[in-house]
Amino acid sequence: MYNENPLFLSRGVNNEEIKTIDINLNIETPDIIIGTVMISCKKNPETTVVGKIFIYKHTSPYFIETNFDETYLKYLFDDCQKASYDISNYVLTMLTIDFPSSVLSMSSSHDIGMVQLPNTINNSKGI
C-alpha cells in the first residue's frame, strides 16, 4: 500500500493530494479475481473505491482489466489528470509485480457503478 512514504516516489506517486493507495482483491472464483482500487486523499481522508479490477485466470498470460471512475476522480482532485496518472502508474506497478507477464488493459468511465461480472464469465457459467 502506498502511504506517503518516500520509498513509493520511485513507483511514480508524487502527488501531495494522495494519502494512500491500496489494491484489494476481494473475490476469487476458478475463472476470475475481482478487486478494487482504494484511495484516501486530502479531500476525503476515508478510504474510498475509485476503480475496479478484473483478473481473468483462464488466459495465459493472465489478462487484467482495470476501470477507474473518472467523475469521482474529478471530484476528489484539483488536478484530476495528474492524480489519475499517479494512481494508474502505482496500480500498474503493483499488478505487474503480483502477476508478472500479464496483459493489462486500463480504462476509465464516468461511473464505475456496481461491480458487474463481464459477459464472458456470465456466459461460461450458463447464466
Decide which structural class fits the backbone: alpha+beta
Amino-to-carboxy terminus distance:
36 Å
User: What number is the mean pLDDT?
Assistant: 79
Q: Strand-and-helix sequence, N→C?
A: EEEEHHEH
Strand percentage lies at: 25-35%
Output the radius of gyration.
Answer: 15 Å
- Low-pLDDT windows of residues: 4-11, 121-127
Number of strands: 5
Q: What does the overall shape look like?
A: elongated
Put simply, the count of helices is 3
Strand order of the largest sheet: 1-2-3-4-5
The profile of the biggest β sheet is: 5 strands, mixed
Portion of residues within helices: 25-40%
Give me a quick take on this structure.
The chain is of the alpha+beta class. It contains three helices and five strands, in the order ββββααβα. A five-stranded mixed β-sheet has the order 1-2-3-4-5.
Verbal overview:
This protein has a domain at 18-98. The chain has helices at 70-76, 80-98, 119-124, and strands at 18-28, 32-41, 48-56, 63-69, 103-109. The chain has 127 residues and is α+β, with helices and mostly antiparallel strands. β3 and β4 form a beta hairpin. Helix content is 25%, strand content 35%. Strands 1-2-3-4-5 form a 5-stranded mixed sheet.
